[in-house]
Amino acid sequence: MITQRLAMLGMASAAFALILILLLEEERKETRRRKRKRRLRRRLNARECSEELIRLGVTPTEIAEGYERALDKCLEILPSLVCCEIKDVRNVKEVVKGIKTSIQSKQYGNEDFISELVTKASVSIIPEQTTFNVDNVRVCKVLGSGLYNSQVVNGMVFKRHVEGEVTKVEKAKIAIYSCAVDIMQTETKGTVLIKTADELMNFSRGEENLLELQIKAIADAGAKVIVAGAKFGDMALHFINKYGLMAVRLNSKFDLRRLSKTVGGTVLPRLTAPTPQELGYCDVVCIEELGDTPIVVFRLEGKESRISTIVVL
User: Fold this and answer.
1) pLDDT higher than threshold 80 for residue 189
2) Distance (Å, whole) CA 282 – CA 157
3) What confidence tens digit (pLDDT) does each residue in 155-187 have?
4) pTM above 0.90, yes or no
5) Neighbouring residues of 159: CB distance < 8 A, sequence distance ≥ 6
6) pLDDT (tens digit, 9 = 90+) per residue, 61-100?
7) How much is the pLDDT for 290?
8) What are the extents of the domains in the chain?
9) Which of these ranges, 9-18, 111-120, 202-211, 229-238, has the smallest mean pLDDT?
10) How far is 8 from 200, CA to CA, in rounded Å?
11) Membrane-crossing residues (predicted)?
């Protein structure tokens, strides 16, 4: 009898413990549901709140008036919450304080160095009248070195190598083309009837002479650098080296547009001699090596740059 009672008591205790566990689990689930509801309430945006008010019978005019009053109240309260104010947006020491807070949450430990880089790049291209465009601050990532060797370049940087022999030009006028720098070819097939060897020689020599005249016209216009959005032909490179020009190829049409904006030039669709208004200007165009990676630098030193580049190593 005693053994049976002990067994029954053990079973009752186990059942009680199981019920208690189930109740605790249910309570935890209920707590999670409440927290989830609270989070959803916090995430309600203005549109959903307006929807709910319209369902309750509030007119849209009254809702708009309420939002306007809330905006006025916010603008009234905000000045009392100011902890730091940047008075001069062209002062690097002042601007870096505001940028450091956002950098610190993403790059903790490197915020001092990175915020100074971002500040220098941003301050150097702040326009006088128009609004600031964030696309004017470019980032070029180069492998093979350390973060603290990163630098800001007033101008543009491309991970490319020059096509010709000239690797550095100072006070350069730049001609920018979206087409290939090569012998012009027709879009459709053509037939040429050649009867003698002299005609064959004159035909090929005529194309070469025409290409040389085009390159010479570009050089006579004052250009020292040719930037193209397509290939440079072997014969074209021969004449480019002959006249001492620098050749740079960019594969992206967006890079061509940014470069033309930086140097103040015009992207030409055909290989023609540019006018003085269509030529861009850059203080230094050169090849540099960062972390075993060759880069082409278009550096503007003598005036305020329209685009700045952060070279991250």
Assistant:
1) no
2) 13
3) 888 888 888 888 888 888 999 998 888 877 666
4) no
5) 140, 142, 293, 294, 295
6) 888 888 888 889 888 898 888 887 777 777 888 888 888 8
7) 77
8) 83-150, 152-312
9) 9-18
10) 114
11) 6-24
Among residues 299, 287, 270, the alpha carbon closest in space to that of 172 is found at 299
| Highest-scoring range by mean pLDDT, 25-39, 46-60, 84-98, 208-222 | 208-222
Handedness of CA 8, 13, 18, 20 (dihedral sign): positive
pLDDT recorded at residue 175 = 92
Q: What angle do CA 264, 184, 237 make, to 5 degrees?
A: 65
DSSP β-ladder status, 308-312 and 151-153: antiparallel
CATH number corresponding to 152-312: 3.50.7.10
What tokens appear for 93 in the block? Answer: 């020491």
Token readout for 214 is 């085009």
